[in-house]
Predict the structure.
Amino acid sequence: MSEIVEHEPADVMRIGIVTVSDRAAAGTYDDLSGAAIRDVLSRWIASPWTEMYRCIPDDRPLVEATLLELADWHRCRLIITTGGTGPAIRDVTPDATMAVCERLLPGFGEAMRTESLRTVPTAILSRQVAGTRGTSLIVNLPGKPASIEVCLSAIWAGVAPALRLLGGTTFANSDSAPVRGPRAETGTARV
C-alpha cells in the first residue's frame, strides 16, 4: 500500500483508484481498468492531483476497509472504484460502497447506466452507485476497461460541483474534459 506523501502541498487533491478484482489482485490479470481511470483523469484534470492506488480482491469487508482508509485516513476527495458491480455473487463493490457512504447520489448510477445502455444492452445489469463520506465522493465504475471513459463522461460535469458542495479542494478541468452544459468548472482549483 502506498502511504501519504509527507510534504504534499495542501492544494494537491488526493484521488483514490481502487480496482476490485480477484484475478487482478492475484496477479493473473493485468489491471487495465485501473490504468484506464488513471489515463482519463490525467487527460481531464488540469490541476495537481496525486493518486492513492489499491488493487484488492472481491471481498466485501476488504472493500469497505479500503474505502474507509482512503476516505477517513488519507482524505481522498474522490475515490473511483472499478469492478465488482455486476449481479454475480462475488460482485460486492456497490454493497460495500453503500455500507460506508453517509449519503447516496442515485443520479450518478442512473446517468452511467443510461449512457452505457446506448451501446451495451447488458449495462442494465450494472449496479454501480455513488455516494459521499465526509468530504469524499465515492463512485463505482464497471470493471470493463472500455466502459471507464463512457461512464466517467456521463457523470463528469457533476463531479467538481459535488466536491465543492462537500467542501475542500476540488479540481480544474482541462480543455479535453467532457462537459455537458456550461463549462462552469473550468479554472476552479479550490473552494
